[in-house]
Every structure is written in structure tokens, then in C-alpha cells.
Amino acid sequence: MTTAPKPKYKVIGTRPIRHDGADKVTGRAKYGADIKLSGMLYAAMLRSPHAHANIKKIDTSKAEKLPGVRAVVTSKDIPEQGDRIVELGEGAVNMRHLASNVLAREKVNYRGHAVAAVAADNIHIAEEACKLIEVEYEVLAPVMDVIEAMKPGALVINPDVKDENGKPTNVAKTFCFEKGDVAKGFAAADVVIEKEFRTATVHQGYIEPHNATVHWNNDGKVTVWMSTQGTFSARQQTAELHRIPISDVKVIPMEIGGGFGGKISVYLPPVAAALSKKTGKPVKLVMDRAAVFEATGPTPGSVMKVKIGAKKDGSLVAGEAWVAFEAGGYPGSPIGMGCMCVFACYDIPNAKVDGFDVCVNRPRTNAYRAPGSTQVAFAVESIIDEICEKLKLDPIEFRLKNGSQEGTRRVDGPVFPRIGMKETVQAIKDSDHWRQPLNGKNRGRGVATGFWFNCGLKSAASATVNPDGTVSLLEGSTDIGGSRTAIAMQLAETLGIKAEEVKPSVVDTDSVGYTDVTGGSRVTFATGIAAIEAGKDIINQLKERAAIIWECDAGQVRYEDGSVHGPKGVSLTFKQLADKLHHTGGAVIGRGTSSEATQGGAFGTHAVDVEVDPETGKVTILRYTVAQDAGTAIHPSYVEGQFTGGAVQGIGWALNEEYWYDTNGTMRNSTYLDYRIPTCYDLPKIETIIVEVPDPQHPFGVRGVGEVPIVPPPAAIANAIHQAIGVRMTELPMSPPRVMKAILSK
Amino acid sequence: MRDFEYEAPTSLGGALAVLSKGTAKTMAGGTDLIDQVRMGRHAPDVIVDIKKIPELNVLQHDASGLRLGAAVPCYKIYGHCGIVSDYSALADSCRIIGGIQIQSRASVGGNMCNAGPAADSTPAVIALGGVCVIAGPKGTRELPAEAFCVGPGKNALQPDELLVEIKFPARAAHSGSHYRRFIPRNEMDIAVVGVAASVVLDDSGQKFVSARIALGAVAPTPLLAQAASESLAGQPVNESSIAKAAELARSIAKPIDDMRGTAEYRVHLVGVLTQRVITAAVARARGENIGHAH
User: Fold this and answer.
1) Residues of chain B neighbouring A660 (CB-CB closer than 8 A)
2) Could you tell me which residues come within 8 angstroms of residue A555 by beta carbon, excluding any fewer than 6 positions away?
3) Residue B40 pLDDT more than 90?
4) Pair A234, A266: CB distance under 8 Å
5) How many CA atoms lie within 13 A of A379 on its CB side?
6) Number of CB pairs < 8 Å for A and B?
């Protein structure tokens, strides 16, 4: 569905085979763990068996004596960081906390916290040596629950985290956004719904575990091979932690087996670097699945109290939200973003949001697709559904009436530019899914809308014209969702050549200009702009080359449809001219950057049909449709792929995924057997509708699509469950025991 | 992972000789054992592969009943027409243990020896009246399946003994059986609760002659629900007799809270599944084809 007539694109909107496709489907693509270097050592990590403890003593002497062990490191091998805050592209980081997270210093703040590492001739020796490291712990009571952690008198996890009076606290940050007059707004409401919601800690669930192979050379230069969402961020984190110049570190990106926000923070490279520095040999460190669950960054569980008021005619008048997110062992949950997203889908004249970033003895949380937005959407979209029920209003019409549009001011201040919120609602209203009646017992249909900002940040690209008329494109955005092809297509469209004639490569930090992380749904947008700029640079240079050949002024040369056109009707195709570049001055290299452009925000609306087994509480997804504003879909298959993947992860978050802790603060389901992401047997085909409301900030109108689709599912499913069996679920996951309990206490 | 020796004897005597040295672990498909060794739960000096011993690969179905060697893999069991028709609950359970790769290796004998409280095949074996045939240095002994598991991960075997086969009685006329588990997903899960039932009806198909009901994942070991089973004998086949059996089954469930479900929920599920499973077993006893849902 397109809202405006589109220019006649030749490449954009087509579905070429991805450039990395053959390597991926034949298993030849090299991922992080595939690296093998001569003389390479294998490393293993000793992790804390306790959720909360002081480290009294670490004795590594027995481990060091085991034959085959080459080095043992602890936090002493990572320099002191002091009170430094460093800007790392997608947010500022307290270096002392980052260093302590990489190798625990005085304390362990969660089970699985890295304590020491061993490099040895093989992995078995390294693992056995870990068992010989003696750590004396003073075990402390684990603080697992957000509300408990916020109470005065709660055991404080980080003594250096203090409130405004200088008193240590677990509440690392508080936010408050307000607009209008909330009390007056609620006074004018005919219906007010107020509820408390909880969501569980969930993991991104990427297939590929974290990995790093590092060689600290004798000249002080450090090379890192790893899969990461951001090579430049990994370079900076590694360099800052070891207090060496960033230019001494080169990060070589390997293919990445999923990230979803979880592969931005570094865990392993600084440790492997310390081991390599001690041994002089390359050191490889790879996590096992339990370590991925216990010691990387899941996304926060939450407690939310939300209150919304509306008038009888269905107009929203006031909203209030109190949102507390688990930060994990160190501060830094996406609470700020959550607070900005709470009411972003609606035009609410009076609203207030309070947010809290709360340390608990769980792994330090991290981004996960639209970080913070899924939690708050679960609360708000459930309440909106209840308001519609109370006022006997159609949830689609309600959203068309109250939805955000160009000019709507968010509670945190910004005013929306042209956005497509209502267009996605309309697309669901017009869909086959919504128009088909849902029949049968214990079945229900739900709808929910979600928002994500999407960001711009910095990208760079360069492109060289080859004599055979192809173009080699170098970029720095590690490719998670098919971005290599989406960027190559934008360059091809700019140059008027075929997508297959661009050869994209994701290169290391020495080979391309600074590029921010693959995150914030920014790559197709911002790295796309950099590639377009590189294309324009090539065009300008090609005009000059043609002018040399035709002995005319460059101003007399036009570039159109992949050809240069000169005076008196002369012309050369891109390919013909490419063959003459060596005789007209050598290589043509285009370069482009993007730094100013920022995105206008994206919305999605989802519809879902469920059936609930009233005797077991098990929820079956019968039908699922995603409608989302993609601005302009560069490669529709990858847009649909993002819609589908995000929806599936949201369904998992809604129904079964959770960190299940025992009373000692030990996660008991750190395997894919018991951490239940949906299998293909649990899902229908996800139907997708691409809505296109072009973003004027991108030359082709691109909006990022990667994050929005995870936002609506939990709320949409909760609303469907309510319609099916009449219970309102206020806690995630809506697992069979929980749904059954709600049915029995109805 | 600690180093160990690997032995693959080709005779029962050879296997017993290795086991007599102590500290050996027996391996059939290895689908539980290899993972447990890797995770450090066991550190055996010797692993004895018993797949090459003829007695443990017996699969014999005739008028006297069924003999199932302890190393026979799941795929051969659910692919055997006689087992599918006469020991349906056993086929039901083997069809849902793991995926194709696991089913090609994993055996019912191994599933029983691993003694997991949530093992899928054990309730089916108990409901079908299976008897374990155990070989040891002093000869052979037999044990009813319900007495084989003695605790989580613990079975009734001595370190020098070996489970050779499981014997089942011949299928009675007008009988049928079924196994079903509850899992939150539709694949790749461990039973939150598993229930197997085998029923014998009278000639009219309207009355229970006898029944055996077994429960999984609700106690330290799979259980024979004796009172529930006996309650059906002589009763008409109807909702109330089945509901009464389900209630009696619930009363012996002593589950725990864990990542797979709460105790309260598991007790509830025992009631729901017992009714569903008895109903399905009755349908099979009446000759109806109920297919095999997950």
C-alpha cells in the first residue's frame, strides 16, 4: 500500500538475490567462531556461581601451573578506569562499570559475571584450569526484584551509584516528562482505567554466541576478529578499556548470526586482548549458551503503572505512567526511551511519565529491538483496548481518531513530522484478515499499535568503479538484516546500474570512515545516504572524465539513466566509460557520509487471532498480520523479513519467554530447551502489509523497519486473549500456567 | 570435559565384564549421557556402548506379547506396525521424544535408565504393563516398570547390572492405549505433565474391564496411578467415571514448582490430561482411529 505516487525506480522496490546469499546458504560465510590463526590459543572464562557477592581473594596459582596453560587474567589485567564517562555512539558509558562488567573487580553483581579467564593450548585445558582458580566470595543476598530494589533500606548493589543527596541507591536514574495539566485532564474524563503491569526479563535469542579472537602484536597494535553490531564501537570500547589509542585497535567484522541490540556492548575482546598481551599469541574466546543467557545483555523486565482517561466520545484527555525497568547489575536500561514511547502513538493533551532505572542482581540489560517500547506498549495498548470496551468503541476507529500524526507533540517534547501511524491502522482495517469474521469458541481477535523513533547517526561509504562497469562498495555497517544489499541497491539506483553490478563489502575499521552501530533501524537509512552520496561523487567525477574524452567542459555533460551525455548527442554508458578510466586519470573513487539526517519515526499496527484452550491456558496463534510504515521499501523481501522476525520475537516475548530464577538468583532455564522461543510449529505464516509514507529526510523516503515490529505483539495478543475468554492479562509472559490461573480466578 | 575410555562389547557377557569393574557408564543412544558428561554431571572413567549387543536389539512381537530390546531406537518403535496398533501409547511417546536425529539414536531402555521424572516413554511402558529384564553377574531378574525408577536420575540397577529388554503382555481384546503430554510450545519441550493410559473394555465397549494409568513429571519418578486405575474397573464408560479417575490421579501428584510450571498448575493438568487420555484410549479400544496428535 503506497500513500503517494512513487518516482519510477529501476532498482528500488525490486527483489534481487542478496550479494552474500550464496555464501550464507552454502555455509561458506565466515562467522566469529570460524576464525583460526596459526599459534592461536583457546580461552575459557571462570564465571561467578553467585548472584551477589564480594570477592575477597582470587588465587590463580594452581591454574597457572597446569600443563598447557599459557596465561590467566583477572580484573587486575584491565587498567583502572576512574570516573570516566565515554560517549560510545549509541549512548554514554561509565567506564568503571563497563570494565567491572568485563571482569569483576571487588564484587560480582549477577550469576555468570566474568571473574577470570585462562588461555591454553586447547579449550579442554583452559576449562579444566578455570576449575583450579580459587575465588573466596563473601556471599550477599541477591536483590532480584525491581520494587524490592527501590525500597529504602534495600541492599545497594553499586556503592558508587548515588542519589541527589549522595546516598548510595539502586535507582540509578529517574526521568520525568510532562505536558499539559494531568489533574485537569483526568477530571474531564468519563472513563479512567488504571492498571499495574509486569513484564519478564527476556533475551534477544540470537543463534550465534558472542565471540572474539584477538592478537596483541609485539608492536602494540591490536587486531580483533569478532561478530558485532558495531566495529567502531567495539574498537573504542576495547581501546578505552586498555587505555590505548583507538588507532592501535583494528576490528575486523565477521558475519553475524543475529544481534537485535545485544551485540553492541563488548564482553570478550578486552579479555582476549589481555590474554593475548600476556602470551604474545592470538587468543580465541567464545561463549557457550549458558554464558550468553547469564552474562550478556537481556532486555529489562519491568513494573509499570499506567492510567489513561477518555471522554464518552472517545477522545483521549489524560495519561499518566510510572515505569521502572531492571537495569541489571550495572545502570543503563533503556528507561529513557521507554518513557518517550509510552504515549507516542496517541495525541494526548495532558500526560505525565515517571521512569526509573533500577539496579538488580541480573545481567546488565541491553538493547533489544525498539528497546523499552515493547514493555510500555503492552501496558498502554491493553488499557486503550479496555477503554474501547468500556465505551463500546471500535479499537480501529478509536486509533484513527486519537492516533499521532504530523504535528502531534510527544510527552517528551518533540513534534512529529510526517508519519504514518494512522495509515498503518487503516491498512489493518482494509486487510483481508480484519474483514474476515472470526468464528469458533474460545477465539478472539486483538489489535495494537507500536512506535519506534529510528535514528540517523553517522555512516561512511566509499565506492570504486571497476573497469568492467561494476562498482566495489565499501561500508562499515555490519549486515544483520540484508542491509548490504539494501545499501548496494541505493547506490545502483543513484548510478542507474543494476543491483548485481554493485559489489558491497563490510570492511574493517581501518578501511572505511567512522560508522555507528547497526542499530536504531538506521543502516538502510543512514548508510544508504552515505552510499547515495558516494554515488553522486562518482557521477561528478565521471562527468569530468567524459569531458576529458570529449574535450568539452564538465558542465556540458549530463548523467542520466546510467550514461553520460555530452554535446552534439555523444554519450557513453556507465560500462563504456568505466573501461576508459585508466586512460583518463586512473581510478574513480566516490565517497559519502551521513551525519545530520535523522528519521521521523515509524509505526506499525498488528492484528492477531488466537484460540485459548480453556482447560490448559495454552494460547494458539491462528492468524497474524503486520502493517507497518516502511517509508519506501528498498528491498521488499527484507522489509517483510523484518516485519515477520520482529513479530515472531514479540510473540515469544508475549507467550513463553522469561528468565526463570530460583531463590539464589540462579537462572534455571539458560538453554533453548527451557527458554522457550517459538518454533515454526507455534506460528502461522505472518502476513505482512508494507505501508509506504516516504520519510522526507531520506532521498528515497526510507524509514528503518527493524525495530517497530516487536512492539505491538504482546499487547495485541493480550487483547485477543481477552476477547477469547474474557480475562485481561497484565503480566508477561502470558504462559499457560498464568493464563490458566487467570481463567480459574475469573 | 574429562577424558574417558570407550568400550563397545558385542556380547552381553562382555558388557557385564566391563560393568563389573565399576565406574563405567552405560550408553545406548547417548542423547542424555553425552550432554551430562559434557556439562560435568558425570565424569565416568569408561563409557560402555551397548548398541552392538544382539540381546539389546531384540524387537519381537507375537501372540505372547512384545519384547523390546533396551537399545532399540525410537524410530524403529513408532515405525513398527504391531507396536502402533497394539501398544499405541508406546508409539505415541516415541514419536514425540526429540526430533528425527534424536529418535534415530535414543531408546526406550535409555529413557528409562536415565530415570528422568518427565521421561515420555516411561508412563507409556508402565501403563502397558511393561516388565524390565535385568542382567547381572548373578543372572537375570525381572522388575515391573513402575518399580524401575527410584528417584530423579536414579534407577533400580546395581552398578554391575544392565537393562536388557522390556517385556509387554499381549494386547487384550477391546483394549486401547494413549500417551499425551502437555508442553507450552508444540515442539522441543520437556513434558510439564505426561499421562499414559491403557484400558480394556467389555465386549459392548461400554464398560471398563480394567485400566492402567501412569503419570510423568509430577513426582520424583513416573508413577502408576493405582487407585485411579482401579476405580475404572467395572464402571461404565462415561464422563463421571472418567472424571473420578482423573480426580484420583490428581490426588497422588506431588509436583514441584520449576521453570516448566508451577506445582498448582501441574496438579490441574493431571486432571485435564487424564480425562483426555482415557477418552482417547477408549476410542482406540473401540477401534476408532484418533491419529497421533502431538
Assistant:
1) 258-259
2) none
3) no
4) yes
5) 30
6) 55
Can you tell me the distance from the alpha carbon of A400 to that of A383, in angstroms, rounded to the nearest whole number? Answer: 16
Cβ–Cβ < 8 Å for A403, A347: yes
Distance of alpha carbon A409 from alpha carbon A347, whole angstroms: 7
Alpha-carbon distance of A70 to A55, in angstroms, equals 24
Containing domain of residue B26, as a range?
Answer: 5-49
Q: What is the structure's pLDDT at B3?
A: 81
Cell numbers representing residue A679 in the block: 518454533
- Strand B149-151 vs strand A53-59: parallel, antiparallel, or unpaired? unpaired
Q: Say how far residue A40 (Cα) sits from the centre of its chain.
A: 32
A371 interfacial to chain B (CB closer than 8 Å): no
Fold of A21-29+456-594: Aldehyde Oxidoreductase; domain 4 (3.30.365)
Question: Which string of DSSP letters, residue by residue, matches A311-353?
Answer: -TTS-EEEEEEEEEEEEESSS--SHHHHHHHTTTTB--SEEEE
A596 or B198, which is more confident: B198
Between vectors from CA B138 to CA B137 and to CA B140, what angle results, nearest 5°? 95
Contacts of A586 (CB under 8 A, 6+ apart): none
So what's the ipTM on this one?
Answer: 0.95
pLDDT of res. B294: 46
- Joined together, the cell numbers standing for residue A529 give 545516504
pLDDT of residue A4: 63
- Please report, rounded to a whole number, the percentage of residues in chain B having pLDDT higher than 70: 99
Domain total for chain B? Answer: 2
Q: Give B166: exposed, middle or buried? Use CB within 10 Å, 0-12, 13-18, 19+.
A: buried
Q: Which residues of A are less than 8 Å from B259 in CB distance? A: 660, 668-669, 674
Cβ-nearest to A668 among B2, B187, B258:
B258
Every domain range in chain A assigned CATH 3.30.365.10: 21-29+456-594, 372-454+599-744
At residue B245, does pLDDT exceed 80?
A: yes
The Cα–Cα gap between B161 and B139 comes to 10
Pick the CATH number of A372-454+599-744 from 3.40.50.620, 3.40.50.2300, 3.30.365.10, 3.90.1170.50: 3.30.365.10
Residues of chain A falling short of pLDDT 70: 1-4, 89-90
